[in-house]
Write a structure and sequence with these properties.
Keywords: Signal. By secondary structure, the protein is α+β, with helices and mostly antiparallel strands. It has one domain: Oxidoreductase, molybdopterin-binding domain (Sulfite Oxidase, Chain A, domain 2, Alpha-Beta Complex). The chain contains 6 helices and 11 strands. The chain is globular, with a radius of gyration of 15 Å.
Length: 175
Amino acid sequence: MKNLAIVWLCLGLLGIAPALANAPLPTPQGPVLLRISGEIAKANSEGEAHFDRQMLQSLPQHQRCTTTPWTDGRIRYQGPLMRDLLAWVGAPIDGSMLATALDGFRAEIPLSDLVHHDVMLAIQQEGQPLAMRDLGPLFVLYPFDEKPELLNELIRFRSVWHLAGLHIHALEGRQ
């Protein structure tokens, strides 16, 4: 709990956490694109947080023009920062999340990545919803061009496309 309070304090300094902490988690009205389970404080469906496109677009949106190891040239992506999304569901920041793709691919991502890097949940490409053929509908996008040191095998493995679910794990003994 102490670490969660520190996270809220840090995000509060950015003006993000207070609005998210007080914002209710609505029920999706459209198709569910993302399910978040595990150690979260807010849920809207039997202990999980479900999100449709409109809910993800209601979070503060960020843009990033970047190259990736899987695409040609610089592409403009848009979406919320992953730390904003996890703040909305009241997830701890000390631990990890298991990201699962639609095809069953899974990658463990330390939550500290979300603090140290502006990891985005890309939901748009060049102003259009991210299509399946373009790594969508959701793509965990690290700031590769801003931080070239992230272009390594470990971070490429964590950059899950066709994202469908996140399962949050706090550090042992923490919540």
